[in-house]
Design goal:
Elements lengths: L9 H9 L8 H11 L4 E5 L2 E4 H17 L7 E5 L4 H12 L3 E4 L6 H11 L3 E5 L1 E2 L2 E2 H8 L8 E5 L7 E2 L19 E6 L9 E5 H15 L6 E4 L6 H5 L2 H7 L3 E4 L5 H11 L3 E4 L1 H13 L9 E5 L5 H11 L2 E8 L2 E5 L6 H6 L3 E2 L5 E5 L12 E6 L11 H7 L6 E9 L5 E6 L3 E4 L2 E4 H9 L4 E11 L3 E10 L7 H10 L10 E4 L13 H23 L1
Parallel strand pairs: 1-13, 3-4, 3-5, 5-8, 8-9, 12-13, 12-14, 14-15, 15-16, 26-27
Antiparallel strand pairs: 1-2, 6-7, 10-11, 16-17, 17-18, 19-20, 20-21, 21-22, 23-24, 25-26
Helix pairs in contact: 2-3, 2-4, 3-4, 7-9, 11-12
The protein binds adenosine monophosphate (AMP) and 2,3-dihydroxy-benzoic acid (DBH).
Length: about 550
């Protein structure tokens, strides 16, 4: 068994502690203390459910004790796939109380991703919501069981099918819960979008994550009067911690769970619950702006709209304050750590044109050219970072670690940024082959690999194409095997059959006779992707020209 760990060199750890970043706080203690300080205050609102801090804490502790009563042991991993429902917090804080390590899957993940995550984490249990948006998640997870010999329990929030345990029945005596964990221990694993292969596990410690949460709360002005609405999936790092649901709970504030981020659902909820802050990815922010243009919504409580996960263009950013009557805050973050924010009192131009500054004075940022040399100030380059809440390694993945971290512990973000004299970063794009579709990160390599599994595919190259609605869309170029003639529809069906997250199915599939090579018959994937992308862009420019 490989237990997830995250360690910083001793001199760094000592510095982060001395500066008060790492304070020895832990998640189980956090909720217990808040529940003791203000038991009757509302913590979580979801649908008709309103849980006070006391109720959330009591439920979590009984559930955590129930997990131990099933035979799970502190340190073991529990894969959690749930949507924006109160029981997510009961599950997660229950696991924390029991010393178990949650590993978060996103609602969009399907069999392929769950198998990978559960396998990598050596999960002893999977906790899953019965259905999310009508998809039978419980059924899917039960179907994995046979292939995961280490998996002891499938626990279902909601209606449990035969063969699974209902979450409501998992209950035990809180007196059996262990002592609080070591603050340096891994509290949970976030997951990375990544640019190669399936999602990687990101072990985060109590100390490091809670520092990023306190820092975020300060920058975002979160206090006990705040009402944070989770519009994006709660398990996403943005929604969880920037400042997100955990930020709100840390401040003793309220979390409102929005079942879907469409304006028709979100606007009335903001009005009803007096939401003060929420976060969106750019395509959803565009939807909100469009809706607001049609019928100016009254959202007097809303003070801050955060937009992040993908680049929000200045022209759209400028429309937020006039149309929604709130401030915009851009957020450029990553589950590996580093998070940047524009400040609430930054001048307008910086808020609309930049992705903000890092949380911590001890976030070290390098902006390097492809040869690894610092670029002149103000020029774009590859962003590398290390600091008090940025991981030093992924869980159990030597080759990813070798690629993603330098010898002195900097994380290669894969982002191309430039830095203004004020310290604000402007994201210019990605250095590697990742498609940022709607804020969902897709590895071109992973999709190519899936396509290559089809009997008629000789070679496949997947590229990102700028897209007005999605930010970027995925376009797959397919070279068929000699004598075969696969259609795009058939390839899409095939991908669906592989049971992967639907956002990974290419938006466009083009069948080509072959790929360009050099005289010696070689071309790098990167060059190839660039030339294919350039071809698509040239075509769409031409169409625009003829339309004029
Ligand atoms: P992940 O590592 O999967 O958590 O994804 C983080 C990545 O999302 C970053 O490295 C960026 O590529 C992208 N990202 C997040 N926020 C922004 C933003 N505000 N602007 C541009 N890209 C962003
Ligand atoms: O995209 C991200 O991963 C992200 C965006 C904004 C993130 O992890 C975050 C803020 O914390």
């Amino acid at each position: 068994m490989t237990e997830p760990r995250q360690t910083w060199p001793a001199e760094f750890a000592a510095r982060y502690r001395a500066k008060g970043y790492w304070r020895g706080e832990t998640f189980p203690r956090l909720l217990r203390e808040r529940a003791a300080a203000h038991p009757e205050r509302i913590a979580i609102i979801g649908g008709e459910t309103r849980w006070s801090y006391r109720e959330l804490n009591d439920r979590a502790r009984r559930f955590g004790a129930g997990l131990l009563a099933l035979g799970l042991r502190p340190g073991e991993r529990v894969l959690i796939q749930m949507g924006n429902v109160p029981s997510f917090f009961e599950a997660v804080f229950g696991a924390f109380a029991a010393g178990l390590v949650p590993v978060y899957a996103l609602p969009a993940h399907r069999r392929t991703e769950l198998m990978h995550l559960a396998g990598k984490a050596e999960a002893r249990a999977i906790l899953v919501q019965d259905r999310i948006e009508r998809f039978d998640h419980a059924g899917m997870v039960l179907g994995l069981r046979a292939a995961l010999p280490g998996l002891a329990h499938v626990i279902v929030a909601g209606d449990a099918p035969e063969g699974a345990l209902a979450m409501a029945q998992v209950s035990g005596d809180p007196a059996t819960l262990p002592a609080d964990p070591d603050p340096q221990a891994v509290a949970f694993c976030q997951i990375s979008g990544g640019s190669t292969g399936l999602p990687k596990l990101i072990p985060r410690t109590h100390d490091d994550y809670l520092y990023s949460i306190r820092g975020s709360n300060e920058i975002c002005g979160i206090d006990e009067t705040s009402v944070y609405m989770a519009a994006l999936p709660v398990a996403h790092n943005f929604t969880m911690s920037s400042p997100g649901c955990f930020g709100a709970l840390h401040a003793g504030a309220r979390v409102v769970l929005c079942p879907a981020a469409m304006p028709q659902i979100a606007f009335p909820l903001i009005r009803k619950e007096g939401v003060t802050i929420t976060g969106l990815v750019p395509p959803l922010a565009l939807l909100w702006l469009e809706a607001a243009e049609r019928a100016r919504p009254e959202l007097p409580s809303l003070k801050v709209l955060q937009v992040g996960g993908a680049k929000f263009l200045p022209e759209s950013a400028k429309r937020v304050a006039p149309l929604l009557g709130c401030r915009l805050q851009q957020v450029f973050g990553m589950a590996e750590g580093l998070v940047n924010y524009t400040a609430l009192d930054d001048p307008e131009a910086l808020v609309t044109e930049t992705q903000g500054r890092p949380i911590s004075p001890d976030d070290e940022l390098l902006i390097l050219d492809d040869a690894g040399q610092p670029v002149p100030e103000g020029r774009p380059g590859n962003l590398l970072t290390r600091g008090p809440y940025t991981i030093r390694a992924y869980h159990d993945d030597d080759s990813a670690n070798a690629r993603s971290f330098t010898e002195d512990g900097f994380y290669r973000t894969g982002d191309i940024v430039l830095r203004l004299p004020s310290g604000h970063l402007v994201v210019q794009g990605r250095a590697n082959d990742q498609i940022n579709r709607n804020g969902e990160k897709i590895s071109a390599e992973e999709v190519e690999d899936l396509l290559l599994g089809h009997g008629s595919v000789f070679d496949a190259v997947v590229v990102s194409i700028p897209d007005a609605r999605l930010g970027e869309r995925a376009c797959a170029f397919i070279q068929p095997r000699a004598g075969t003639d696969p259609s795009p529809a058939e390839l899409r069906r095939y991908m669906r059959g592989r049971e992967v997250a639907a956002f990974k199915i290419p938006d466009e599939i083009r069948i080509v006779s072959g790929f360009a090579t050099t005289a010696v018959g070689k071309i790098s994937r990167r060059q190839l992707r660039e030339s294919l992308r350039a071809g698509v862009l040239a075509e769409s420019n031409q169409t625009e020209e003829t339309a004029k």
